[in-house]
């Protein structure tokens, strides 16, 4: 794709719009503000460009030169949503090649990957073109620069859902988790892809549980994988304590001496499940849950002492009213 | 514990100086703030309010600020672009007091404008409540979310749902919100981690979570959070607090999340679970800049957002001399009391709205 970064003004002398012969017919219009608050000490270039921007919007001019002016304006301030909006009006009016514009916005995004307006501009263009063939590449580049860029993930998910681009998406996310098992955005994307493609069928949940337990083994203090595991269990009726893979995995890990707060927290919730159902014949009893909360509060996770005391109290309350599902914690 | 967490002293005087300065001017390299200067003013005024230092703004300066905010009000029932602009960017001598192309209200700037007016003690008598609400209604999408401006100029997500809820609460008029559809949107944004994302399918984020909960709180719909979800959400949130506050799983702590994450816990009635606060506070203290202001991270330059939200976060930890805040609106308790007294005056009759001054 063509790149707008090639037309940088580096080395060339700046010419003000007021000195450009092709703009002679336009009268610049300044901002109307008597007594400014939060005043910005605008550079002369900034004032010059925006005085002409106000002039063309007032006149309603949609021309090649106006398009070029908006390009200068967004270079000075890519967060100006009015400029982007007016630029889109011009693009439409002049019936411009939108693929060229996609190239331009890609270059801007690469410089400003955490700006709402640039991604919004791209999204509108993709809608207009009804073609999302570059979206995976563009978002992948942004994700390579920052694996947790919320804007990039949001755009990717929008494009995937809107244009049904689920093919190969699973491999993409698998690679990212392999690179960094703590990348929560990647885990979230894994969930997104399954949820919107195959759905969480029994087979899929089984496969995912096995995958996740393996990932937990690699980094037992990684909250991302534990949270994903909890998310998977929401799609089953048996709960945490009713899934043999999970219970035996957790028991083995605990027995081996592991004291990840996320492991202990999960076992506490298993106790909570069984207590709330009023089950007596189980490893997951009130006393065990309370003891784990105590271990978390005093040794394993002391920064959350008050939280673990609160959980223990809830567990006790739950035992008092056991069997009442509306009060499950 | 105290020695282990010895940290720099809190410097309210320096923060006051910086915020007062921001109200006058911001640096040239902050040109990206140009379309949203009202939001910057909001951070400065709110920050001073939390510091209990609004009196450092003279009456004449307050008047000037209030007039400036009102000069940005747009009343346009034809194009449905009423609200407050974020700056005079599209204002010219020719279109003064007139409607013109691209003179649009913006939902965040409308929320920020109303907040500034309330913090400064204005009675909102010049706010055209009816037109703002009518235009705001047109910003709600079919899925219940909001966009920020008319005519397709901006994205749609949970931030703007929050702004719509704040505006409706402040103007005491919910006719601009289809609440059923708003609640549905909020529900659809619950991630498998139990936090809320900006849009459906997005990663749980404590900023969006705060926005979702505050919208439910302000519209009197907290009962939409089930007991089961509430406990899971509290767990997710307390896990975002590790010697400081982060906003997503496995992300580093950052000053502004002392408000977003802390505020979300506050709305769930669970903020006290974080006590003792000293261990979380010290990370924020290290982001204080030597000339005032708070930054995102240690050794980063300070900015208005992190200064203001950092102060809001510290206020929830009851640090002297900070004022209490009314968390769901992110406003001082005093300003909220002022709002309540205005609401009492307005009464319940919708006809009262008719009497609002037209710009």
What does this structure look like?
The complex is a heterodimer of chains A (329) and B (359). In chain A, 63% of the residues lie in helices and 1% in strands. Chain A is built from 15 helices and 1 strand. The longest helix of chain A is centred in the middle third of the chain and has 17 residues, at 202-218. The two termini of chain A are 54 Å apart. The longest helix of chain B has 15 residues, at 37-51. Chain B is globular and about 60 Å long. With 359 residues, chain B is mainly alpha-helical. Chain B has helices at 12-24, 37-51, 59-71, 107-119, 129-137, 158-171, 179-188, 206-218, 227-238, 257-267, 278-285, 304-316, 333-346, 351-354, and strands at 25-26, 73-74, 83-84, 146-147, 156-157, 325-326, 331-332. The chains are: A mainly alpha (329), B mainly alpha (359). Chains A and B meet through strand 1, helix 1, helix 3, helix 5 and helix 7 of A and helix 1, strand 1, helix 2, helix 3 and helix 9 of B. Strand 1 of chain A pairs parallel with strand 1 of chain B.
Sheet-strand content of chain B, in percent, reads under 5%
Taken in chain order, the helices and strands of chain B follow as HEHHEEHHEEHHHHHHHEEHH
Task: Please tally the β strands of chain B and state the result.
Answer: 7
Mean pLDDT of chain B: 94
Our Rg estimate of chain A from Cα atoms comes to 28 Å
Head-to-tail CA distance between termini of chain A: 54 Å
Protein name (chain A): Protein farnesyltransferase/geranylgeranyltransferase type-1 subunit alpha
Enzyme class (chain A): transferase
Pfam family, one (chain A): PPTA
Family (chain A): Belongs to the protein prenyltransferase subunit alpha family.
Write the layout of secondary structure elements.
The complex is a heterodimer of chains A (329) and B (359).
Chain A: E1 39-40, H1 44-59, H2 64-76, H3 81-93, H4 98-111, H5 116-129, H6 135-145, H7 150-163, H8 169-179, H9 184-196, H10 202-218, H11 223-233, H12 244-255, H13 261-277, H14 286-300, H15 305-320
Helix pairs in contact in A: 1-2, 2-3, 4-5, 6-7, 7-9, 8-9, 10-11, 12-13, 13-14, 14-15
Chain B: H1 12-24, E1 25-26, H2 37-51, H3 59-71, E2 73-74, E3 83-84, H4 107-119, H5 129-137, E4 146-147, E5 156-157, H6 158-171, H7 179-188, H8 206-218, H9 227-238, H10 257-267, H11 278-285, H12 304-316, E6 325-326, E7 331-332, H13 333-346, H14 351-354
Helix pairs in contact in B: 1-2, 2-4, 2-12, 4-6, 6-8, 8-10, 10-12
